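Field log, afternoon session.

UNIT: design team B
ACTIVITY: writing a sequence onto a fixed backbone
BACKBONE:
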């Protein structure tokens, strides 16, 4: 078995997800400074959930995260927490964002998100393993 698998109390796993968060109204509110701050916020928040940020990138109106998470983590709750914490901290640290991009409202992210599992095994490899 590959050494990059994680071990839990009663499980061996490697769960990864690709998450995309989009700014409210697709406003171009993410600059280089905010990008670095968001990366730190996401990393610290994920550590509290015993998860890991594997990769992070952004454009001016959305962020891509690739994360590794534990089997007992409810992904929708984790993503909601990532959005809530990052929005609150970014708005607190950059109070001008609200007036500049979001019509004075307390927004940063849109209500929706994208998530996809991203494992390293194809269906054909699974079938071969099972036979």
């Amino acid at each position: 078995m590959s050494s990059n698998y994680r071990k839990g109390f009663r499980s061996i796993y490697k769960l990864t997800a690709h998450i995309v968060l989009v700014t409210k109204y697709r406003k171009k509110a993410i600059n280089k400074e905010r990008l670095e701050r968001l990366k730190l916020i996401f990393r610290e928040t994920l550590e509290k959930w015993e998860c890991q940020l594997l990769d992070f990138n952004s454009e001016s109106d959305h962020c891509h995260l690739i994360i590794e998470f534990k089997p007992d983590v409810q992904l929708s709750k984790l993503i909601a927490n990532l959005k809530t914490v990052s929005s609150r901290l970014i708005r607190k640290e950059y109070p001008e964002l609200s007036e500049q991009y979001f019509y004075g409202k307390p927004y940063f992210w849109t209500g929706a998100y994208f998530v996809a599992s991203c494992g390293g095994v194809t269906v054909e490899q699974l079938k071969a393993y099972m036979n």
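LOG NOTE: The CA atoms of residues 41 and 86 lie 6 Å apart.
NEXT ACTIVITY: expression trials, pending approval
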